[in-house]
Design a protein that fits this description.
Blueprint (H helix, E strand, L loop, with lengths): L1 H10 L8 E4 L6 E3 L3 H6 L1 H4 L1 H5 L9 H10 L7 E3 L1 H8 L5 E5 L3 H10 L10 E5 L3 H11 L4 E5 L8 H11 L6 E9 L2 H13 L6 E6 L11 E7 L5 H15 L5 E5 L10
Parallel strand pairs: 1-4, 1-6, 4-5, 6-7
Antiparallel strand pairs: 2-3, 7-9, 8-9, 8-10
Length: 270
Amino acid sequence: MKHAILLQILARRDQDTPLTVLDTHAGTGLYDLHGEAAQRSGETALGVGRLMADPAAPVAFAPLIAAVQNANPHGGLRWYPGSPHLIRNALRAGDTYLGCELRADDHALLAQAAGSSTGRAGPKAQFLHRDGYLEAKAQIEGTAGPRLLLIDPPFERGDEYSAVLEILSRMRARPDIAAAVWTPIKDLQTFDRFLMGVADAGHPSAVAAEVRLRPLDNPLKLNGCALILVNTPDVAKAASAICAWTARAAGGPGAMGQVCDLHGRPLIKL
């Protein structure tokens, strides 16, 4: 869901102005779906495996499907391209990609995987062993020109929500900066409190693309996720189709996917 919507945002950007994309938590860049961690989680079969096997998937998934196919030139489904690959291959010459990864082992893998992107003339790229939150603040306060912040933290630290909200608050003075923020949905209270914080940041264009896979009755489980879109191009129709398909394909009884304003009102009815 996250990556499909991200590619829709990049496809609708202003084509006449160079863009800088900051990936605050870039990870390793390329993921082995045959690896132990992927096999243990079962996410491949539940997510991208079902997507690649569904000829009737919404057209909004087409850029992501193409990117996964390009990452597996010999067919099959062995490799999944993370956000560093997806973003760099969606940008143009003259654009800039900044990928932050604070974990030393993941940063080393990120730099290694960077060389396996497509060989076409592409954007400038830097892979920074740096705190993505600090870099986001630096981009807001010390740079000029359009920027997209992909804020995709693991939410392992107790201050992740407040760190994200601080960045969104600082963005008020920079309408040329957009953000896409991934967040888990475990319980309704935490999610609603976060949406209220986003609303308090004062961005009238902010919306939430949500996928809920199961009832929110166990806060210890990842019951869904959301992508909060601030100042991005209007991708509500495509994002609604993406969220609805994901809920149907991966969810259980009561699953739902939609794009809402920050008060929970759906923007698109499918």
